[in-house]
Amino acid sequence: MFSIVAFTLASALAASAAEFTVAVGANNMLAFDPPSVMAQPGDMIHFEFQNKNHSVTQSTFASPCSKSTSGVDSGFMLVDAAATSHPIWTLQISDTTPLWFYCAQTNPVPHCAAGMVFAVNPTADKTFDQFQTAAKAGGSGNSTTEAPGSNSVIPAPTALPTAGGAGAGTSASVSAGTGASVSVGAGGFTTSVSNAAATGTNSAAGAATTSANPNSAVGLSSAGAVSLVSIFAAVAGFML
């Protein structure tokens, strides 16, 4: 009886999760579109890299353009202007803690200082506008440390959703290709990328080389986004 209830609850939670699509660098703009989202636990955010060479790098509200040493990082995603498919990096939200991100590209100009930042669950006291203003004012420097989160990045879908809904581990990597490469972080983060033509170094042109993400621990492959909650519930039910 317990196994049926647990599995049903886990399935319901997975089915109710919203999905957001965020365009990274669309139309040659140094911007995330939309620039912020309000997400609930279980929701997924799909970052679609549309052109040039950008990243989704976690920072802090206090230091918008400084990489958090305990945060996640997509690495640089080089996308050719003629590309017909784009890399997708997916983040699953586990709580409502505010999260702050920026593009770490500095060539030919620092993208963060140009306002290319993104926020998840900004608050009335710490707004997106304040975060972006601080970035434009020169909120850069050395890497900073913040408390680990419990969000996760899961395998990206084979196709983006048609409409959107309303941390960290200790090490990670992502890879280019048509499938999904997943890394599970010790602190709850996992990272994935799909449909990647190439990943690039920190340059405007970008060399076609795999970019290391410093926030994962274990790598494995998967073709779909499966809820860890559902897996654990199913295993628990089977054992009972």
UniProtKB/TrEMBL annotation:
The chain crosses the membrane at residues 217-239. Residues 1-17 form the signal peptide. Residues 135-158 are annotated as: Disordered. InterPro entries: Cupredoxin (IPR008972), Ser-rich/MCO-related (IPR052953). CDD domains: Cupredoxin (cd00920). Gene3D superfamilies: Cupredoxins - blue copper proteins. Residues 142-153 have a biased composition (Polar residues). Keywords: Membrane, Signal, Transmembrane, Transmembrane helix. PANTHER family: EXTRACELLULAR SERINE-RICH PROTEIN, SERINE-RICH PROTEIN, PUTATIVE-RELATED-RELATED. This is Cupredoxin.
